[in-house]
Amino acid sequence: MGIFERYLSVWVGLGIILGVVMGLWQPDLFQLVANLEIAHVNLVIAVFIWVMIYPMMVQIDFSAIKDVGKNPKGLFLTIIINWFIKPFTMAGLGWLFFNIFFANLVDPASAQEYIAGMILLGVAPCTAMVFVWSQLTKGDPNYTLVQVSVNDVIMIFAFAPITAFLLGVSDIQVPWETLIISVALYVLLPLIAGVLTRNMLNKRRDKDALNNLLSVLKPWSMVGLLATVVLLFGFQAETIVSKPQVIGLIAIPLMIQTYGIFVIAYIAAKWLKLPHNIAGPACLIGTSNFFELAVAVAISLFGLHSGAALATVVGVLVEVPVMLSLVYIINRTQHWFKKT
After folding, report:
1. Does pLDDT of 51 surpass 60?
2. Tell me: the pLDDT tens digits for 68-103?
């Protein structure tokens, strides 16, 4: 790995600090950026997500996707973890910690908003960031694309009813525009751009053209990630500084959830005898969250400065360093799995 990937946790930490400092120093600037949105999808964040995942999309070879059906176990694992386990364990942990363990530490109204934010994270499986995690574990990019695509299709139909059920509000208004535009901006359009770029390079019959382009684009992927982190923490800077103890309270069940789901998925991947380049991404998709969507929906339903929005941003704070630790574990345990 290059210097960006090797010390990504350090850069993310600096990005968090920079975001909070800038958010306190120039709150009006961040408010202006926050207002640049369509259907509660922030356009600036969408651009940074593009910068982050476009290089991964260029690497995808659609001619190899036909071979995914030869090993459907990875898809099966992802679907079970994301839609039959993860949302319910997240809701259960949120209820347990904020209604029982932390009941005397936060007021009931805030507790319910924190639980709501956690639920939104749990019901939104990772779409964009998973391409970064897959790349860091040398996962099969074509298989990862199929796994993400299947989850996106399921999410369109399952996100609203599962969220409504877990929030206990039968008439909840889930912003469909936000969901559809998020998937289009964060997955569909970058994917189309990546396919067109790859086809254009292949027509040149220059074997080094693709690798040369990727070597130029790869650092920008990390820049997109760090810029996204800076923005998200800049938006919530005042709340983070005024309620630091709340950040820790929210982070505890989120960390338990993330590591717990990973253990379940990794043991299942080993039991299913998946190859390492499929097992890694399959577990990471089930473990990580589509935090861009969760943040957008939390803001839409509860407001920019709500406890639900804060919980989704804390999800980013927890997810990035924890996911990097899981990437390390996956890379160190390659010998546990068969090779393709």
Report:
1. yes
2. 666 788 888 989 999 999 999 999 999 999 999 998
Confidence of residue 237 (pLDDT cuts 50, 70, 90): confident
- In angstroms, how far is CA 196 from the centroid of its own chain? 25
- What's residue 171's pLDDT? 44
Q: How many residues does the chain have?
A: 340
| H helices present in the chain, as ranges | 3-6, 8-25, 27-34, 43-58, 73-80, 86-96, 108-123, 130-136, 141-167, 176-183, 189-203, 209-235, 237-242, 244-271, 276-287, 291-302, 307-332
Q: Cβ(236)–Cβ(309) under 8 Å?
A: yes
β-partners of residue 37 are: 42
Measured between alpha carbons, how far is 20 from 320 in angstroms, rounded to an integer?
16
The residues pairing with 41 across neighbouring beta strands, listed in sequence order, are 38
Measured in whole angstroms, how far is the alpha carbon of residue 40 from the centre of its chain? 18
Rounded to whole angstroms, how far apart are CA atoms 308 and 302? 7
Identify the CA nearest to 19 among candidates 234, 241, 235, 310.
234
> What's the confidence (pLDDT) of residue 339?
67
62 close to 146: Cβ distance less than 8 angstroms: no
Give SS3 for 38: strand
Residue 335, by phi and psi: left (phi above 0), alpha (psi -120 to 50) or beta? alpha
Q: Which two tokens stand for residue 13?
A: 């930490």
**pTM of the entire structure?**
0.76
DSSP assignment of 253-320, as one string? Answer: HHHHHHHHHHHHHHHHHHHTT-BHHHHHHHHHHHHSB-HHHHHHHHHHHH-TTSHHHHHHHHHHHHHH
Instruction: Evaluate whether 90 touches 121 at the Cβ level (below 8 Å).
Output: yes
Residue among 131, 134, 111, 318 at smallest CA distance from 232: 318
Average pLDDT of the chain to the nearest whole number: 81
